[in-house]
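Hey, sorry to bother you again with one of my protein questions. A protein chain has come my way and I'm curious about its shape. It would help a lot if you went through both lines with me. I owe you a coffee for this, so here goes:
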Amino acid sequence: EVQLVESGGGLVQAGGSLSLSCAASGFTFDDYALGWFRQAPGKEREGVSCSNSNDDSTYYADSVKGRFTISSDNAKNTVNLQMNTLKPEDTAVYYCAAVRTTMGCWDYITYDYWGQGTQVTVSA
């Protein structure tokens, strides 16, 4: 059974940093693309970042480029999202997701597996 469990969310002041982690079980990272999504109250879920170690592809939403960094540790089956220079508009529930593919991580890809989410709140 595929499971994704996020951790690391919390409350931080604007300009601060948080590091999210997603621990995966039930599958081998090598064959999967991994992504981070977020959903703010009253808004649709949006993609934040993703990566695929098979072809070294990565994606960042324009709103987080230069501030967020995605990384994965295939040996530990974890994917992390380092978030720096946080803004109040980054407040959302952040979800880790996975899909079995060896090519790409964003265009024309639908994620199959999702974590339960972790709350990130950035105060002004």
